Amino acid sequence: MKRRLAAILAADVAGYSSLVRTNEERTLQKLRELRENVVEPSVAKHEGRVVKWMGDGVLTEFASAVDAVSCAYDIQSSIHSRNREALGDQEITFRVGINIGDVVVEGDDIHGDGVNVASRLETLSDPGGICISASVHEQIKHRLDVPFQDAGAQQVKNIVEPIRIWKWTNSANDDANTKKPTSDSGLISTPSLPEIPSIAVLPFDNMSGDAEQEYFADGMTEDLITDLSKLSGLLVIGRNSSFVYKGKAVDLRLVGKELGVHYVLEGSIRRVGNRIRMNAQLIETGNGSHVWANRRDGTLEDVFDLQDEITREIVDALSVQLREGEETRLGSQYTGNTEARDWFLKGRQRYREPGPQANAEAQVLFTKALEADPNFAYAMAVRSYLKFHAWFFKWNSHQNAFEEALAEAELAAKIDPNLAAAHAFLGWMHMWGEGFERALSEHSTALSLDPNSSDGHLWQASSLIYAGTPELAIAPMDRAMRLEPHTPPIYLLNYGHLMLQLDRYEEAIEYLQAAIRNAPQFPMNYIFLSAVKTAQGKLQEAEEAGSRLLELIPVATVSTLNSQLPYAKEEHRLKIVAGLKAAGLPD
């Protein structure tokens, strides 16, 4: 029996079962790509040996700890970079454990305590991170500039003595820690340019001489964003961040730096009676040069064709590679009825405003759109989401309000199966409906149809938090915030919720306080803040958060709020319940 001393690296995919349930074929394909393009080349580069692959896991062997840790760092950094630029996919993250120990060699395989400890360390690693034994740390601490943190002695399964471990997480050098809300606008540290073409569509100027036509110009802008967002070969900045620049004279090169994009599309719209004139120009942000410009004239009946022509010319100008199905979806129209579309644009403008009155008024406008075109799936989907909001916040006391909202979203998806918004809304609602498996499946479908949907990534992340896998929510949450560099309050809120459930309380407070500065009227801010303050033992501050919550929802009780939060794990629910009780809410 041959023995030798070796550095053993064990790795597996975090949340593999959940990924397979959501989309087995895509998960296996991505794992195969990572195996062939990242893991095995990195092992070879650092003079290691792949001992064996075991489903979603891999066991490798190195002659030195320095080589093993260097390889692990390269693998995790490479996967992280790929995930940041992934469009529409649920990202794969690895956990890595490394140990130095005696191994028994049997053919090409290795066994023994050295291997067992590495496998146990892998389970202690954070997703995207590396966990090493003290013996490994002793070998690399003066040789590698990788900031490992002492995590103390840990008792692990089937190992008699506790093992002192050291951990490195990608978040130590990544957005989860370095993304700090730097202003009330929510602008996060300047994003880097992606490898693929990237664009921001700035709000088109309303040149009609009629302020009442502002909704029409905004609607055309949003439609262009929505159309371009369907393309996986293009990074498209979300509506919220693009509209920060509305009505402002801006240096497009500075806009490019703030948003991290190669190109900016700007233009104007003039609507007089039934006639429309649309001017658009595409600017390269690096040097301010014009890439493409055009003018279109037509009537209201031509508006869909005008949008389609501009979208396709931009795609051609940027040489965007289209995947299967994208060509068809690019030319799809939500309605051919100009009256229905007009009501929809007015409703969408009102829909973005908070509060029960705006909710009710937006529903009326979408109802008028549906009266003009009963099969207008997009209007139906957005109205269903408004109905859900009214149910959730108790603005609608109708007994079957939730069931009505869910049924309407289901119908919208049935009418137009390629409507990403309908699937995204269904994904959110089904946490209270059929459950997390259906919810996450709908989110996956939505993002496959609209990979640049910042809201889609946000809702997927939120669903993963409620499903009890907050560690899997980091990647889609980061993606949502990359698509919205001027981060909206709801994103700050959800990042705060994520940090709460990861027990990263100081970061949770930063994000929740930023959310409150931007949207003090949103009740969920105070629900999560009271939970964080309670977990920290700051009960007076928890009570202050509760007082503000009761100002916004006077009828709020612990039991009613608890019943509406669909946590899969009791430990996550108990954090909220403890916070609500400490905040002084009645049972």
Automatic annotation (TrEMBL):
SMART domains: TPR (SM00028). Residues 7-122 form the Guanylate cyclase domain. InterPro entries: A/G_cyclase (IPR001054), Adenylyl/Guanylyl_Cyclase_3/4 (IPR050697), Nucleotide_cyclase (IPR029787), TPR-like_helical_dom_sf (IPR011990), TPR_rpt (IPR019734). The keyword DNA-binding applies. Pfam families: Guanylate_cyc. One of its GO terms (biological process) is cAMP biosynthetic process. The keyword Methyltransferase does not apply. Coiled coil: none annotated. Signal peptide: none annotated. Keywords: DNA-binding, TPR repeat. TPR repeats lie at residues 420-453, 489-522. GO terms for molecular function: adenylate cyclase activity; DNA binding. This is DNA-binding transcriptional activator CadC. It comes from Ruegeria atlantica.
